Amino acid sequence: MSTTPTRQDFDHYMTPNYAPQQIIPVRGEGSRLWDQQGREYIDFAGGIAVNSLGHCHPVLVNALKEQGEKLWHLSNIYTNEPALKLARTLVERTFADKVYLCSSGGEANEAALKLARRYAVDHYGEQKDKIISFSQSFHGRTLFTVSVGGQPKYSQGFGPVPGGILHATFNDLESVRQLVGDDTCAIMVEPMQGEGGIIPATPEFLTGLRELCDKHNALLVFDEVQTGAGRTGELYAYKNYGITPDILTSAKSLGGGFPVGAMLTSDKVAKSLAFGTHGSTYGGNALGSAIALAAIEFIDTPEVLEGVKTRHDLFREHLETINRKHGVFKEIRGMGLLIGAQMSDAFEGRAKDILPLAIEEGLMALIAGPNVLRMAPSLVIPEADIAEGMARLERAIERLVANA
Ligand SMILES: *Cc1c(COP(=O)(O)O)cnc(C)c1O
User: How many Å apart are CA 198 and CA 365, to the nearest integer?
Assistant: First the structure.
């Protein structure tokens, strides 16, 4: 029996809810990866906005090794130093007074939604239970978060689904005004829709949501699972807008590749997550917290955050140059190192066709829906890797155009 796993093993042994590419990466360093055959790839995908410092960054490897030889896990019957340091760090660097730690974005959002409902019950009564979110939004894959998310295909066939959820149109304040009322307990929004196509919220939209929440005593929840932890060139995207949410969720880049999530909130709101109301066995796990702490301390510096903005400009320039030659994109958008290139009419729906071509050229990229090529690389990706990755992307796009 062969001891080296193959791609066919995926189809044999794993549930078929994913369809991974044919190659199997086995090693990574910075923004480069190598597969089982030793072929090298440049990583513009970043594990879907997770590998904030690339692969095996020494700062994260050291945190992992150091904590790994000390203490991994206790459960929440005891607290631990790394979790306390991580919570303090997040509080000191954001609007928040209190932090709930968990292991994923879906879990952070689940906590946020449950907290919003509890807060409404505590302060206003059970009738205040409506949650407003947006079409095309994505908030995770638990039953509550797929129901709040605005992509019906993720909740269809899993009913009965939780009730009291309404969907408005992103960047359309009027559509929210039609749904909001004194029975609204929360509005949940991504400051920039990620899975929905890399669509930044307009400042007027977020300002308007803040005002509507204040008017109706509803909580404003920012899902920053994809935009957080330095991704947009600020520690959290709300800082770009100068609009403060009541609850903010973070995961993905927060752990730099280790599963860590967090929900941040104010003292007043946090009180409703009273003793015994919610929990997670792994939440605030010592090993994960130590890694997230190292990631946040490294990322939240002027050098790294400025570097994200500089790299954004570089990505944009390269994509525009490619587009001048090949005319495949209609719009290039995003913030920091979460970038989307929407396909032009002639290539409508063909973003996904770029991915296997890119892999053949030695580049990993992402899509956000059928029509947007997405990039979410390491926040410290070297300029040389950007240039080489873009050369490979251009070759993939030449082949897309040639086969059109
Ligand atoms: C990825 C994502 C989630 C879900 O995070 P998981 O860690 O997969 O549970 C939630 N919200 C947004 C905006 C995301 O991008």
Answer: 14
